[in-house]
Amino acid sequence: MKTEFTDVLIIGAGPTGMALSIALHLRGVEHVLIDRLEQGQNTSRAGVIHAQTLESLRPLGVAERLIARGLKLSSFAIRDRDTPLLQLPFDRLPSVYPYLLMLPQDMTEAVLAERIAELGGCIRRGVTAVSVNQEERGARVVVSQNGERHVISAGWVVGADGMHSVVRQASGIEFEGDSYAESFVLADVHLDRAPAPDEVSLFFSPDGLVVVAPLPNGTFRVVATLDDAPEAPTREDIQALLDTRGPAQRPCRVVDVAWSSRFRVHHRLAASYRSGRLLLMGDAAHVHSPAGGQGMNTGIVDAVVLGQLLPDVVSGARAEAQIDLYQQLRRPAAEQVIEQSHRLTQLATARGPVRRALRNTVLRLADGLPRARRSIALNLSGLARASLSRVQPC
Ligand SMILES: Cc1cc2nc3c(=O)[nH]c(=O)nc-3n(C[C@H](O)[C@H](O)[C@H](O)COP(=O)(O)OP(=O)(O)OC[C@H]3O[C@@H](n4cnc5c(N)ncnc54)[C@H](O)[C@@H]3O)c2cc1C
After folding, report:
1. pLDDT 10s digits, 149-188
2. What is the pTM of this model?
3. Which of 4, 53, 175, 316 counts the highest number of beta carbons within 10 A?
4. Residue 283 CA to ligand 1 centre (angstroms)
5. Which atom of ligand 1 lies closest to the CA of 284?
6. Per-residue DSSP letters for 109-126?
7. Does ligand 1 lie within 6 Å of residue 126's CB atom?
């Protein structure tokens, strides 16, 4: 079999793999980025980009382009139908990006792919990693393209290949955690009016949760938990969710559905982010509930941190052992995200009148405490978690 050589092989060109590729291009690291899909995914999925992610993407020359296409929202509000419980101000975040930026994931991915092309790089599409075998100073990856197989021999292999990562499986790293019983409904819809135009609105109700947030193209992202969500939720399904869970005094009417999906959610964390010369990031390393919109954001920050360390290790400016700083910074961050989104999901899905009353009391109390509001906003924005500042330049 033909063998090609590279310093770094990134498997998976989702947002995480693309962000790492940009970072490596900017540092002049020779690498290959492959994805089994012939084309980038064109679905909406992750809809929010947080302040810490934008700060991380700024040196990559991407943040301003995302902002130009996105919609800035200033707050995140939790209500029990029409009763306000907690209002989190994002316009007072200690960041140059004091807001929640709404942008569908396919548009975020398009911006990242454009930047790779601008830097002279490419995504090798239709290339599937079939097997990964670790060697002393790297790994041999057998890839398949158009029915033909060849080997890519890389000094480092980064698994940015999503939840079912072949890199994680080859490394034998455990993916510890569990699945949620509920499934999530996701839809981008046109509404006759906004519940609140400038905020992410999270409505609790005895029937469960519904989240409504405006997107830049005039649609609204609707997310809800259901015991057994339909595969492709219809306009009537979304309307029923809004009628039974959303604002009652000024109800919204769903005009049409631009995109809808359901997905099942797990909360899992890789026991380690590294095995020798194999590294994991993004959904390959951690998956969790979409509550708080953290999935893609956490993966992108992983990539930017790794993109600071790996070039130094490849060039020999840092000792190989220092690559472990990546896991030291980012695994605890994922632990916090999993814990936080799990808590938010439990709050949102609390059953029984006593539990719900207790939950609402706690949230109202937190609303009266500016420090509590600020702390929750810092956590949701990612700013409370370590990222770049602890990576000292060589
Ligand atoms: C329906 C849906 C809705 C979502 N909604 C939200 C949301 O509201 N908020 C949020 O934060 N997150 C959401 N997510 C999660 C979010 O999409 C992920 O967290 C994010 O895409 C992770 O990025 P990633 O680059 O790590 O992995 P992925 O985006 O999964 O990319 C992995 C890439 O690896 C490629 N690949 C896999 N195996 C191989 C192989 N063997 N060889 C070559 N290539 C391979 C895949 O083709 C894919 O392109 C949602 C996900 C789904 C499916």
Report:
1. 999 999 999 999 999 999 999 999 999 998 887 788 999 9
2. 0.95
3. 53
4. 6
5. 26
6. HHHHHHHHHHTT---EET
7. no
